[in-house]
Design a protein that fits this description.
mainly alpha, globular, about 80% helix
């Protein structure tokens, strides 16, 4: 149950990061077309990069995995901060850091499917 709960939290914060990128994109651009491009494009690019480097099935090394995780979650926190929600940004980053720490120290990483 402990492993499942922590992996669920990991999945939720990953999906929330995608939502934050879309939210930030909507509020950053002035033109409607640019807004929609950012709302769709930023989460898609983040998901592709995540899938290539940070997903459990990614063929990259551990260092690339950690760099991408720190970048994605850090940028999501920075985006929340820039949207005028500093407490939410700090709370999000604290939850992410605690979850990553638990998963790493307890060796709860999901296994690659065979």
């Amino acid at each position: 149950m402990w492993k499942g709960a922590n992996l669920l939290v990991a999945f939720v914060v990953e999906v929330v990061a995608l939502g934050i990128f879309g939210w930030w994109g909507w509020n950053t651009a002035d033109a409607t077309l640019a807004r929609w491009l950012l709302v769709i494009g930023l989460p898609v690019v983040a998901a592709i990069v995540w899938g290539m480097f940070a997903a459990p099935t990614a063929a990259r090394g551990a260092s690339a995995r950690w760099i991408v995780k720190v970048l994605v979650f850090g940028l999501a926190g920075a985006a929340l901060w820039s949207l005028g929600h500093p407490l939410l940004a700090v709370g999000y980053v604290v939850v992410v850091a605690a979850n990553l720490l638990i998963i790493h120290t307890q060796k709860l990483q999901p296994t690659k499917p065979s």
